[in-house]
């Protein structure tokens, strides 16, 4: 019986719709397990720019620091995508949050629910049994180095940077996680070309002997992009830099059937943030068709990691499993064989999960 | 009836084995079509380091400048992969060659031979009809910017850079290619985070009106990594930066069944270079089992692009198609249903293609 304060930060696009379902599930878990969860919400991204001019208003950041955990939606807006010279952008809110909260490790579990074995574009026999846990570094790399223009704006540059400390910090998290799983760690870099990757590989090699029970391999990012699709079962824990992690985990979403199924946990030394890996998806915003399961599964990660509520977390995952077993699907995970009346909208899907709790 | 001089640069690992097959095919084409092809060879990569201490000896570069075209193998050696602090590396030979020859555009056609529809880990119904032509920028980006260490070696950095000129140059090639195909161009970047991508997007937007017949879309690299597997048929021509192109084309190899099938052409203002997209593959080097078709198809690109020999190029592709139709496979493209006696080694596979010419 615990009392916890959760900040809901829907952000933009479908962020609003999906976090509403995540919150519904948290509410039910509190009632069922006798916890008291209090909530607040805050603006970020385009929504925050519209309201305050700032993609991460100080009040949002303050609320985040004070909360026990944050359930986050998504940020982004087509307006900025079409205007590469825009100075204020929704994504700055997300990146600044990650930096300010020190969220250096982004955990992205890629696991296929049995029922979705046919939903992917990858063959079932390739997917069956795949279970990967990505550790994406989240506060360094080309995302946070100096960037700008020179030669009267005719040349653009971005600086990628990593320190030993930054690499070691996330690498240790990944080694520790591998210990609790199948004891395999794949470190992904591009050490044949870039210097940050050479440092990355050096650090992994240096600390590996401290984890003799973990089998370590190094792969180049290009080869990994291929192997993930060719033979996803060969991976257990994967640790990689910010940019490579961004690309590889989106790709790996196909292993889980759909991006709409993937949750993530961003952890650091303070408040942790839980968010779907999908984006704001403005093409389907407001239509009530977005898959809320990534947000609901993010809530499950929140319960487990931030609150240490293992049973509660598993109850959510089991409820999702039951809903899928009962044949319910959102559009993104439906296939030709799904009966029309089993294809649900965002809120109806949330209600089905609720009904199993 | 033409006289042409071709430089064979096998490089490392399976490079030797596969370029030998590519050359065999070029020889036959010359005889069949009444051309005179003369050859020379040269060292690059680990092989060149061992012999001369330099991954791209001056004599190799000189021969390249003088040749009408270069058939290239692969570079790399596990020795350097395990030693991130090595100062001299095989890959430097490849990168310096690209820079010195001004090979700014790397064309990577991703096309599935009908017969290999079942060889991929992706479902046949997703793949059928997929046909993508990648334009990977090859002489800029984080590959060629300043890189190094600071803070007593504790921090590593890499600088990514693009100028308008560099982006426009490859973008125009891609637009022109799209005109001769399905008239769709997808430009891939990460303009929501990095400045080089913002410049990239600006340049594409600026020149797009000059190609009103080409439909342009912009995608983020993470979304593209997902869409390539989810729905490869939506892509026609894809243009992207050096690093993103490296990652996405290796991933896309799964669309063609195997990396062992993919050829590439690196073009610039002087001699062009043709090479498989696969690497040196030391795990299978010397075993005679590497798939030579990527090198043979690279020879086909060479005939077409450098020599303007369309019929000759098509004859090679048709020969490969016939060999596949006859059921012959190397290990990488064989499946459970392939009879043992149809699984061929490198040279035997080359001989089968020869027999069809
Ligand atoms: C929106 C964007 C800045 C972000 C990123 O690149 O990190 C997103 O793709 C993600 O993966 O969380
Ligand atoms: C070997 C390596 C430097 C090279 C690259 O990254 O360009 C290779 O992966 C390629 O795609 O040609």
UniProtKB/TrEMBL annotation, chains A, B:
Site (Important for catalysis): 143, 190
EC class name: oxidoreductase
Protein encoded by which gene: leuB
Bound cofactor: record note: Binds 1 Mg(2+) or Mn(2+) ion per subunit.
Natural source organism: Chitinophaga pollutisoli
PROSITE patterns the record matches: IDH_IMDH
SUPFAM superfamilies per UniProt: Isocitrate/Isopropylmalate dehydrogenase-like
Binding residues annotated for Mg(2+), in chain numbering: 222, 246, 250
E.C. no: 1.1.1.85
Reactions that this protein is recorded to catalyse: (2R,3S)-3-isopropylmalate + NAD(+) = 4-methyl-2-oxopentanoate + CO2 + NADH
NCBIfam families given in the database record: leuB
Intracellular or extracellular location(s): Cytoplasm
UniProt entry tagged with the keyword Cell inner membrane: no
Cofactor dependency: Mn(2+); Mg(2+)
Pathway(s) the chain acts in: Amino-acid biosynthesis; L-leucine biosynthesis; L-leucine from 3-methyl-2-oxobutanoate: step 3/4
Domain Isopropylmalate dehydrogenase-like: from-to ranges: 5-353
Keywords tagged on the record: Amino-acid biosynthesis, Branched-chain amino acid biosynthesis, Cytoplasm, Leucine biosynthesis, Magnesium, Manganese, Metal-binding, NAD, Oxidoreductase
InterPro entries found in the cross-reference section: IsoCit/isopropylmalate_DH_CS, IsoPropMal-DH-like_dom, Isopropylmalate_DH
GO MF terms, alphabetically ordered: 3-isopropylmalate dehydrogenase activity
UniProt family annotation: Belongs to the isocitrate and isopropylmalate dehydrogenases family. LeuB type 1 subfamily.
Subunit description: Homodimer.
Residues binding substrate, per UniProt: 98, 108, 136, 222
Coiled-coil annotated residue ranges, if any: none
Role played: Catalyzes the oxidation of 3-carboxy-2-hydroxy-4-methylpentanoate (3-isopropylmalate) to 3-carboxy-4-methyl-2-oxopentanoate. The product decarboxylates to 4-methyl-2 oxopentanoate.
The name this protein goes by in its record: 3-isopropylmalate dehydrogenase
């Amino acid at each position: 019986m615990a009392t916890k304060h959760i900040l809901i930060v829907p952000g933009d696009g479908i962020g609003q719709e999906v976090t509403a379902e995540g919150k519904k599930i948290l509410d039910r878990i509190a009632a069922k397990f006798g916890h008291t969860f209090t909530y607040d919400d805050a603006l970020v991204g385009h929504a925050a720019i519209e309201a305050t001019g700032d993609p991460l208003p100080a009040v949002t950041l303050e609320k985040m620091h004070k909360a026990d955990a944050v359930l986050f939606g998504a940020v982004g807006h087509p307006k900025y995508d079409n205007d590469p010279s825009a100075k204020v952008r929704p994504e700055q809110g997300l990146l600044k949050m990650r930096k300010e909260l020190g969220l250096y490790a982004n955990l992205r579990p890629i696991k296929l629910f049995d029922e979705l074995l046919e939903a992917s574009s990858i063959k079932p026999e390739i997917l069956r049994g795949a279970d990967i846990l990505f550790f994406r570094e989240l506060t360094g790399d080309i995302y946070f180095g100096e960037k700008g223009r020179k030669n009267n704006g005719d040349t653009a540059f971005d600086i990628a940077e990593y320190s030993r400390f930054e690499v070691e910090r996330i690498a240790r998290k990944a080694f520790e996680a591998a210990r609790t799983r199948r004891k395999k760690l794949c470190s992904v870099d591009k050490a044949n070309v870039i210097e940050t990757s050479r440092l990355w590989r050096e650090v992994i090699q240096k600390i590996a002997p401290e984890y003799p029970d973990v089998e370590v391999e190094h792969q180049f990012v290009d080869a990994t992009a291929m192997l993930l699709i060719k033979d996803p079962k060969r991976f257990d824990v994967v640790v990689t830099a910010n940019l490579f992690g961004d690309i590889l985990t989106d790709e790996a979403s196909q292993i889980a059937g759909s991006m709409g199924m993937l949750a993530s946990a961003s952890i650091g030394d303070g408040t942790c943030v839980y968010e779907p890996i999908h984006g704001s998806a403005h093409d389907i915003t407001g239509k009530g068709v977005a898959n809320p399961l990534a947000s609901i599964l993010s809530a499950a990660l929140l319960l487990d990691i931030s609150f240490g509520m293992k049973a509660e977390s598993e109850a959510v995952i089991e409820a999702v499993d039951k809903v899928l077993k009962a044949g319910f699907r959102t559009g993104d995970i439906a296939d030709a064989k799904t009966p029309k009346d089993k294809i649900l909208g965002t809120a109806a899907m949330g209600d089905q999960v609720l009904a199993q709790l």
